[in-house]
Design brief:
Elements (H helix, E strand, L loop, with lengths): L10 H5 L1 H11 L4 H5 L5 E4 L14 E16 L9 E9 L4 E7 L4 H6 L5 E11 L2 E5 L2 E4 L5 H9 L1 E4 L8 H11 L12 H6 L5 H9 L4 H32 L12 H8 L6 H14 L6 E6 L5 H14 L3 E5 L3 H15 L3 E4 L26 E6 L5 H13 L2 E6 L13 E7 L6 H8 L7 E6 L5 H6 L5 E5 L9 E7 L4 H16 L3 E5 L10 H9 L15 H10 L7 E4 L5 H12 L5 E4 L12 E6 L7 H8 L9 E7 L6 H11 L3 H12 L25 H17 L7 H10 L2 H9 L1
Parallel strand pairs: 4-6, 9-15, 9-16, 10-13, 10-14, 11-12, 12-13, 14-15, 17-22, 18-20, 18-21, 19-20, 21-22
Antiparallel strand pairs: 1-8, 2-3, 2-5, 3-4, 5-6, 5-7
Helix pairs in contact: 8-9, 9-24, 9-25, 11-12
Length: 756
């Protein structure tokens, strides 16, 4: 029978069932290898030996001294009102001075037995002052029975690892368990190619594991961390590089626009010039579309940077080349908004395929065939497909897709259903990637005869290192220029609890904007209808964006706030509500009235977060702003300032000035730079699992690497990984790397990358 490799040995066999059970349930550690990769969070230094006469205040010190006296006192306290509280006072001396040690409660029993007068020991703790006397409260100590100088120096200078622990398993017990398994570190198989390790001066893996758990110096810790970060970055980047390599081998139909086709006709009709950024990114996309393997590109850009225009030109290029393009939107409101804005941008080049309603027009409604009135010969049908469409409209839309009459389809997850068939799907555009699971994206990609080209769009700016890890199998394009005509947005925090008159002034500002002929949004975290679950609302209250306060009131609700505003500070204005539980037709009607200027103030949930474009809306008041994340606030704010008039965003909160929630809001108010805000957001949330497992609550595959801080390591690892995979795609010459990859990519993660 084969022996189990040392690092795959179950902890149950090595540490016993009780400890192994706690480690598995609370820390997700199952094998010796898992435990060896459970790294210390930080290290305590006991400090150099200090004479009792020279003790510095508020510092951690280590002293060697002899017990002069030990006394146990009883006292009354709130916890022990009958005088049963216990305090042990131990006086120690080193011949130069004296010092008092204090132990309380259950902590008195062990030292009371061991620290007898005449006993010599080392003591480590933080020096404090009580009743004008220096003391160490609950110091760590080690009895010196051998009393050799070497023992003293070693113990005093040691760096004590502090591990991520649980109430069931303290750090020192984890340290003790690691002492048991540490010899197995010598068996660790090194995933880094020797040439890479030597070229970059990195420690071998066994040595790195020894030094991370039992460092002698701070330099040991630094060397070990450098090496272990490289492991995580490199193995992950190899996984992504192999995905890119496999994609490059897939066949795809090259889609090149005709010089005098639909795209050229569209560009000729544009009433403005594309920004430099739009032209550059379009060029990158067109080059990808012209190749015979599928494009996999991430298009990220600030709110309002013109991503939809870039995506539309890509779709038109594919239609020009005889294919079809599908745009997948996360909500019906956004799908309808995209359909409306794309058909408006295309003008006479768009045949109407919106079967539930046609655009408002003089002289009645109804569908227009073969292009709009006076339509162009190049026109293509643009259809909308959502889950709420009637049966007849849905049948016609599906027919248009399967016959190829519809060149462009815009829809929600309804596009993914089995019944949906395309004539020749050439391009999939996914808007707001973070709203879709990879399974949904993959299902739509599977509808092409050959793999279609893929363009993923996000308005949530992503720091470069995150793009290299989370979206590492996609090439990245960035739009960081705002088109001409976009106005600046002023943002201010409104501390409603501290300064109620600031909130009153906020409503005055909304009235002033409406008097100027503009419109406003008011955003609330909750709907507030009878279907609202009070327990869920209370839970939501306890876990706002920062989870600062479990005793807070429920979040403010759209329906309540709308009524209060209409009867109070905004009385006389035309106030409407919009939320996700409304019927799709009702939602669309509300958005149409707001877009047409028939509504002054729209009180809404985050259903307006992406894609809603009403240039006349200049003000936004976000109620309970601390309940939203940084990136979400930035997205919401991007709904105003979309026209010629400057935008105003007011972040209303009850949180106190010193709270982390207020710091988040101050950060949002202080900058319009989405990339800076996404960095702040990520630092606060930490990375989760870059392989998409954050949602399932499992432990991150990154234990040492921080995607925000370790940009240089990630960038270098990406280059090295690309070179390794290009030379040996199957890693036949690197079995240890293949093993590490298999360990990283369990079945679920492998599937995630396959569908990425």
């Amino acid at each position: 029978m084969d022996l189990v490799p040392a690092l795959e040995e179950p902890l149950k066999k090595v540490l016993g069932p009780a400890t192994a059970k706690v480690m598995a349930e609370h820390l997700g550690l199952h094998t010796v290898g898992d435990l060896l990769h459970h790294y210390p969070r930080r290290y305590e230094e006991r400090g150099q030996l200090t004479h009792l006469a020279d003790l510095p205040m508020d510092e951690h010190v280590t002293v060697v001294a002899q017990v002069a006296d030990a006394r146990l006192h009883s006292f009354a306290s709130s916890r022990a009102p009958r005088g049963r509280g216990q305090r042990l006072e131990v006086t120690i001396t080193d011949g130069h001075g004296r010092l008092q040690l204090v132990f309380f409660g259950n902590g008195v029993h062990k030292p009371h037995k061991e620290l007898l007068p005449g006993t010599r020991a080392m003591f480590a703790g933080k020096v404090s002052l009580f009743n004008r006397r220096l003391q160490l409260a609950h110091p760590a100590y080690e009895l010196l029975r051998g009393d050799t100088e070497e023992t003293v120096e070693t113990w005093a200078g040691a760096l004590i690892p502090i591990y991520p622990a649980t109430a069931k398993l303290e750090s020192w017990k984890i340290g003790k368990a690691l002492q048991t398994v540490l010899p197995s570190a010598q068996e660790a198989v090194d995933p880094l190619p020797a040439s890479l390790r030597e070229g970059r001066g990195l420690l071998p893996l066994p040595e790195a594991l020894l030094k991370i758990h039992r460092p002698h110096t701070p330099a040991d810790i630094e060397d070990a961390r450098s090496r272990l970060k490289w492991d995580e970055a490199f193995v992950l980047q190899v996984a992504l590089a192999r995905r890119r390599h496999a994609d490059a081998q897939l066949p795809a139909v090259a889609r090149r626009p005709k010089p005098d086709g639909l795209l050229a006709a569209f560009d000729d009709r544009l009433p403005f010039t594309l920004t430099e950024g739009q032209q550059k990114v379009s060029g990158e996309i067109f080059r990808d579309l012209a190749t015979e393997h599928p494009m996999h590109r991430l298009l990220q850009g600030e709110v309002g940077s013109g991503k939809t225009m870039v995506a539309l030109r890509a779709m038109l290029a594919v239609v020009d080349a005889g294919g079809q393009a599908a745009m997948l939107a996360p909500t019906e409101v956004l799908a309808q908004q995209h359909h409306r804005s794309i058909t408006e941008m295309m003008g006479e080049l768009a045949s109407w395929g919106l079967w539930r309603e046609a655009p408002p027009q003089k002289g009645g409604g109804g569908r227009r065939e073969g292009g709009m009135l006076g339509g162009a010969e190049d026109a293509t049908k643009v259809v909308l497909l959502t889950g709420s469409m009637g049966a007849a409209a849905r049948r016609q839309a599906l027919l248009d897709l399967v016959t190829g009459e519809a060149g462009i389809v815009i829809g929600t997850h309804a596009l993914i259903e089995d019944k949906v068939r395309f004539h020749d799907l050439g391009l999939v555009v996914v808007d707001e990637q973070h709203r879709f699971g990879v399974e949904q994206r993959d299902a739509l990609r599977g509808k092409g005869k050959q793999p279609p080209h893929l363009l993923v769009m996000t308005a949530t700016p992503i720091p470069r290192t995150v793009a290299m890890t989370v979206f590492g199998d996609l090439e990245t394009s960035v739009l960081d220029q705002l088109p001409a005509g976009r106005s600046p947005i002023a943002s201010h925090v409104v501390p409603a609890a501290d300064k109620p008159h600031f909130l009153a002034r906020a409503w005055e500002r909304v009235r002033e904007e409406v008097e100027k002929g503009h419109q406003a949004y008011v955003v609330c975290p909750r709907i507030g209808d009878e279907d609202d679950d009070p327990k869920a609302a209370k839970k939501k209250a306890a876990t706002g964006a920062g989870g600062e306060d479990a005793d807070r009131r429920p979040p403010l609700a759209v329906l309540e706030v709308a009524d209060q505003l209409a009867a109070g500070p905004l009385k006389g204005l035309r106030v409407e509500v919009l939320h996700g539980r409304m019927q799709p037709d009702d939602k669309d009607a509300v958005m149409r009235r707001f877009a047409a200027g028939d509504t002054d103030v729209l009180v809404a949930t985050t259903v307006i977060e992406v894609g809603v474009n009403v240039p006349n809306a200049t003000a936004m008041v976000i109620m309970d702003a601390d309940r939203f994340g940084v990136s979400q606030l930035h997205q919401l704010r991007g709904r105003v300032g979309r026209g010629a008039a400057p935008g105003l965003c007011l972040l209303v909160t009850d949180m106190p000035e010193a709270s982390p929630a207020r710091q988040r809001l101050n950060a949002v108010a202080s900058t319009l730079d989405g990339f800076e805000l996404s960095r702040i957001d990520l630092e606060q949330r930490r990375e989760g699992d870059v392989l998409g497992q954050a949602q399932s609550g499992t432990r991150s595959s990154l234990r040492m690497l921080a995607v925000i801080d370790d940009e240089e390591v990630i960038a270098a690892a990406r280059e090295e990984a690309a070179a390794v995979v290009a030379a040996d795609p199957d890693l036949t010459e690197l079995p240890a790397l293949r093993t590490a990859l298999d360990a990283l990519l369990d079945a679920e993660r492998e599937q995630y990358l396959e569908k990425g």
